[in-house]
Design a protein that fits this description.
The structure is a single chain. This protein is mostly helical. 92% of the residues lie in helices and 0% in strands.
Amino acid sequence: MMNGGGMGAGFFGTGFLFIILIVAIVGIFIWMMRGKNPGQSSHSTHHHNHHSLGLLKERLAKGEITEEEYERLKRKIDE
């Protein structure tokens, strides 16, 4: 008699743990995918700004733009 009741409770417990495991896996997957985009765009934006400032400095050094143009463009990049 007890084995029958024990099996049912054990099966319910195993099924419940299985559902918890699936929810956890899906949650971790969503968290990882959501966490990637902002992190990358922030790093990407910083890299882009750094590269753009380097190009501006190079253009200023070559005499392609004036100091006023450099300052104006630098402010736009920093925005």
